[in-house]
Amino acid sequence: MNVGSGITYLDIAQRRKVRNNIFRVIVIVLSVITISPIILIISKLIIEGIGQINLDFFTQLAPDTFQAMSAKMSGEKIPGGIVNGITGTLFLVLLASLMAIPVGIMAGIYLYENGNKRYAGFIRNLTDILQGVPSIVLGIIGYIWIVKNVTNGFSALAGSVALAIMMLPLIVRSTEETMKMVPESIKEAGAALGVPYHRIILKVMIPSSFSGLMTGILLAVSRIIGETAPLLLTTLGSPVINFEIDKPTSAVPLLIWNFYNDPNMIDLIWSSSLFLMGFVLILNLISKRIIAHREKN
Amino acid sequence: MIENNIGIKDPVLSIANLSIAYDEKKFAVKDVNAFIERNAITAIMGPSGCGKSTLLRAINRMHELYPNIITKGEILLNGQSIYEMQTIQLRRKVGMVFQRPNPFPTLSIYDNVIAGYKLNGIRLNKQQRDDIVEKSLLDVTLWDEVKDSLFKKGTFLSGGQQQRLCIARTLAFNPEVILLDEPTSALDPIATAKVEELLVDLKKKYTIVLVTHNMSQAARISDYSMFMYLGELLEHGKTEAMFTNPKNPKTEEYLTGKFG
Amino acid sequence: MKSEKITKYVLFAVSLIILLIFAGMVFSLAGGAMPVFKEYGLKFIFSADWNPTTGRESYGALPFIAGTLITSILALLICFPLSFSTSLFIAEYYHKTRVASVLGTMVDLLAGIPSIVYGLWGFYALRPVIIALGLSDQGFGIFTSSIILAIMIIPYATSLSNEIITMVPNELKEAAYSLGATRFEVIFNVIIPNARSGIVASYILALGRALGETMAVTMLIGNANIIPDGLFSTGNTMASLIANQFGEADGLKLSALIAIGLLLFLITAVVNAIGKYIIKKLS
What we know:
The structure holds three protein chains of three kinds. By secondary structure, chain A is an all-alpha fold. Chain A contains 13 helices and no strands.
């Protein structure tokens, strides 16, 4: 069968097949390239960082530049750890969670209860936009609102406000989505027993969607835990352990930034990054587990 | 004016001029008047969308969960207006069982039975709790099946068992009236038979109002029947009389399967 | 009934907090930016001169707006073939297989890496490669930043695209296969046309991410306050400028930085709003 100048249907079919196969190979190759950075990054962190991780790493304060320099000059390992960063990060996450979780869950329930109303739609849109605000801008907000006007100086509070605003939209939307998955019949069962509205929320809705809420919170925490930019503008950093909300506070990412900027301490960046990354990954894995577990039931 | 020409001696509920609308134009229930006999089973029948579920829900004001609902008329429980009672009190006296079994997924079987107390924050001591759980589960003939797994989640039970658990949850409050909204429509025939048997047994102690799609179920277990059509109560009488000799031609058409 | 009312009011009041935060942010940023806009007017946006030296102070946002847009769009171009192939791998070629779920998990892991770690890796692992290839002397600049940004936004681009691609009805694909179409033809004639607006939306949202990225870019772009003049030129983005200079800023310079923050906020808000709007229209 001739289509035109000497090309047969068979030729065309052959070409289509070849094109199909080439495309498949391209897709596979590009996919492998896509995931190679994660492998490269994790292996780099492990290879360079694992050696520095020991007990001191978790119990000692970060060294200052002179300690690091003298250790380097005498060829020893740089002393100290990142305990002020670890406690600082935990403190900031705790403060941010205390602000963002109650507000986020209640706002999420509000959106769920008022699904189609215009005001709720408006709040939902604002939440979406809030979720896209760059973290550095939230740093500016923490600076203007808290550093300038409340604590009159860099403070844990300022940083945690910035982080809380980052967490908030994630928790609001995950709350709304999980609440939607609680069957209406369960709420009715509560109402039929004469249970008042606020108790239905507290005793029926929240327990029934607990795993979903937890996942949302964990993902929100894992998103803020590695944040550096907003903290540069708000909590500044601290060489000591601090648990006062109106004082500057260190955090693991801030320490990494300090180490990176100090030629004497450059060796410490990998272990700290490995620790930070491990922390984030564990949070992610836990929330994945919760999701998988829920999907099974 | 509620007519009582069907020999109701001791009405628990009297429904007078009850109209319910979801919006100004759309009436779900139109000017219903009826007495409900104590310690009897009253079945409400009618085609889908006839307002039977709305009427049932109005009896313990569950219909108020819908937004913008308009209610006119009156329902008296033992002579007292339910609209002057607190919903919490009312719903303790008038319990409700739903179409699909809905045990609380996060609670054990034990806690599901006393969920009404737990969720309302009513404190009971261990002895009281144990007594209520055992008695309620015995009443729904579930005790022997679950007494060894009381602390398992209620959602592990079969559909029929779950529905009996939901009835037990209602009984735990010791209500006067139990409302059931097509309680067997999600169950298999064997589980249905068990629930029906149970309802006949329960009417000795409780007044039962049952919405059903299933005419033969109404015929089997109810003492009184109501037939609703397009929001109106077209016929209300002794079940036997209504099934053998319906007065309204629409009722007859429905009972003979001409529509539904 | 009463407790129900109270609860509803409390929930409503909490929802107002979101409104307040949002309004407060706009108000504070606009307030902080006021001095610089009073001084320069809209010229601030279009001036390429940034000079904080006292006495010769001059502030213009153009180099940073340009730096932000160029790095982000370039990142999107680099990201697209990679992440779209990955989406096809996960959502079409190997849909619901074990290898696809492993790949999906690894892509998700990319989202879990903190920005500063990307920066370190870019600095110590990627930059030497750029230098070795002779692309640039120091290895800093637009290109290096864009590669890192591209990697960072891959998980955001894929997660939504995957969903959109799996949502293309099977009947349509089967109809094409039954007519003898190859997979390549199904992808280009059925899947892409049907999923187009969703895919576009997911890349717009990924762009929104790239625009605001700070630390990694700060560490790699070279921090030169000039309008980039080539692929390997150094430059600065709005976010990295703020991170670098905010600490020691006061007076007009602080106001200029806040103004840049405001512009960044507006640009990302518009980009995200467009993305979300497309998604909303889909569902």
